[in-house]
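Throughout this review, each integer encodes one residue's backbone shape. One record appears below.

===
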Amino acid sequence: WLFKRTKKGRILVSSAGVILGAVFLLLALLTPVEERTTFFILMALTALFMPFSSPNVLSTIFDITLPEVRSTAQAIEYFIENSGAALAPIIAGAIALATTKQTAILSISVSTWVLCFFLYLGALFFVDGDIKTLRAQMAARADAERTKAKA
């Protein structure tokens, strides 16, 4: 719906989901152990908002990438995503050795999503131009095919 109003719509939805999820995750992880219901509600809100990002990221990648390299772009995105998931326990362990386990889990969990939010904000500056460039390239290809078909 938002993408129909602005080309930045998908990134705006992703940004909102990530930052809201990060806030609810932070609040959930800071909730005292005795307050199980509060923790459950905050984690449910986290689980509601954080997935907003994933389908919109892939759609945005496809919106700015030529068809013949879309699978490569998707593979790079998944590689970066999985590299972060693989390195997080190592980094959390190093932080836990220097501080506490709570600090390690809190800092890794929340800082990752906050970093993601800032990357989305950066993408907001470029996505309009990238979509226009791709559409111009695809229109030029279509014109070339039409010309070839007429000849």
